[in-house]
């Protein structure tokens, strides 16, 4: 699970072009939106695409995203349970 969390952090930084942020800056339980990492709705769309392309997970309901994208921890747990690509 730790490897998945690190991989997720790296992919989020790359996909969202977060140039001033390193893997070490993102804590597993930090909020991704709002006061935490400060992502917005456009970033959420990018994360949905990332889940589909990298892990084979398609989100049909946008409300799922709110639960899944709370933190690196919640994303990693969801991916571990639902991924179709390794």
Explain what the structure shows.
With 86 residues, the chain is mainly α. The chain has one domain: Non-ribosomal Peptide Synthetase Peptidyl Carrier Protein, Chain A (Orthogonal Bundle). It is built from four helices and no strands. α1 (2-15) packs across α4 (72-82). The relative contact order is 0.19. The mean pLDDT is 94.
Give the tally of structural domains: 1
Query: Helix- and strand-based class?
Result: mainly alpha
Number of strands: 0
| Overall 3D shape | globular
% residues in beta strands: under 5%
Number of helices: 4
CATH class: Mainly Alpha
The CATH homology group name: ACP-like
Pfam families: PP-binding
Keywords: Phosphopantetheine, Phosphoprotein
InterPro entries: ACP-like_sf, PP-bd_ACP, Ppantetheine_attach_site
Domain Carrier: 1-83
Which features characterize this protein?
Ppantetheine_attach_site, mainly alpha, Non-ribosomal Peptide Synthetase Peptidyl Carrier Protein, Chain A, 86 residues
Write the layout of secondary structure elements.
Layout: H1 2-15, H2 41-55, H3 62-68, H4 72-82
Summed up:
Residues 1-83 form the Carrier domain. Helices cover 55% and strands 0% of the residues.
């Amino acid at each position: 699970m730790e490897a998945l969390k690190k991989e997720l952090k790296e992919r989020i930084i790359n996909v969202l072009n977060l140039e001033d942020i390193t893997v070490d800056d993102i804590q597993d339980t930090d909020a991704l939106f709002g006061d935490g990492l400060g992502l917005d709705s456009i970033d959420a769309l990018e994360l949905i695409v990332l889940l589909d392309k990298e892990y084979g997970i398609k989100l049909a309901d946008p409300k799922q995203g709110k639960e899944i994208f709370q933190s690196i921890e919640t994303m990693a747990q969801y991916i571990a349970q639902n991924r179709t690509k390794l």
